[in-house]
Predict the 3D structure of the following.
Amino acid sequence: MNPKESNILNGADSSSIDIAVRALNSDLLVAIPTETVYGLAARASSPSAVKKIFTTKGRPSEHPLILHVAKIEELSLWASELSKDALVLAETYWPGPLTLVVRRNNKVCDEITGGRDTVAIRCPSHPITTELLICLGDAIVAPSANRFGKVSPTSARHVAEDFGDEITVILDGGECSIGVESTIVDCTTNPPQILRAGAVTAEQIEIDCGITVASASGESRAPGMLDKHYAPNCKVELVSNRNDAETRLANLKSNGQTAEILDFGADLKTYAHELYARLRNADKRLVDVVIAIKPSMTGIGIAINERLKKASN
Ligand code: TXA
Ligand code: MG
């Protein structure tokens, strides 16, 4: 697929922000950079714009969206009640890669939450998106800017490859610094629960805030966290170490398959940063199998393992 890159605007130009604001105010979708992954944004106060996200992505309407705000003070504009834990978490990690699920007020339209009485809110830290939000004077809702069930985008070019013909404005803010989606913490339960792993871990929350968060499983997980998700076209196989990866690689090659190893040693930050780009690149080159060495279950390694498991299902 040839990316339609004429839609990519340099987000560092203020004229690009003006164009993006005009598009959002006309109920069009705009792709935005964040520190986690690129998002496909609609103005939060326009139900018809929000609906376009679901049709454009091919996403089921009952999968709720994350509301993105410019600053911490805006949390109370959309939430009906806030626990002390929610406030402490926002104060500690915002702007940054943490999404909080809280009770919503009636400013939040049903299209965003799929009719739920809770809403997921985050304050991203990418300066271009912060500026966009301030100029817009409204919140935006933004899922990852990929086709439903596919690999999330970590560059403007990835978005153009998926949606070049359908999105008129893609704000380029460079490669996403983190590379995997935000941590989601449900603050409506006691104790709060992690619904999706990300750069902010339960261990870090305990250290920074003294708040113990549980890990959710089964029904209580975030709606839309399907077992098969983040899936490239190639097959993803998981192994525990380099030796097993080499053995499997030799085996696949002798069977005439194209395969490659994903291995970043102990460098978890680079693993997270490169993961989606490498899977997308493998698809472009029609690689049959990516053999991923599972990172350690520490720090962002937990999120990487979660994504790899889903990609391999
Ligand atoms: O890093 C991120 O969070 C990125 C960037 C673009 O900000 N966004 C993102 O959005 O990952 P999306 O739509 O791909 O994932 C949103 C997740 C879904 O798993 C959804 O179920 C969960 O958030 N979610 C949204 N609202 C929720 C709610 N009210 N209760 C529980 N989970 C919710
Ligand atoms: Mg997503």
